[in-house]
Specification:
By secondary structure, the chain is mostly helical. Helices cover about 80% and strands about 0% of the residues. It has 2 helices and no strands.
Length: about 60
């Protein structure tokens, strides 16, 4: 098992908190959106949710 420095662990946890917040926003958008731009709103929210996860993945790969 790899030892992770506390600073790196905090950074990854912060990114995961951001990702969770954005996933919650995505969930709200999917639950409430019902108009012509719904698909666009959902795609943008998915992109927003994925971004911090991709950053966390890149950072974790370096460990």
């Amino acid at each position: 098992m790899t030892h992770i420095l506390e600073e790196e662990r905090k950074h990854l946890l912060d990114l995961l908190v951001i990702a969770q917040q954005r996933l919650n926003t995505l969930k709200e958008i999917v639950a409430t959106t019902n108009h012509d731009c719904s698909g666009s709103d959902i795609r943008m929210a998915i992109g927003d949710a994925i971004t911090p996860l991709n950053i966390a993945l890149e950072d974790a790969e370096a460990l």
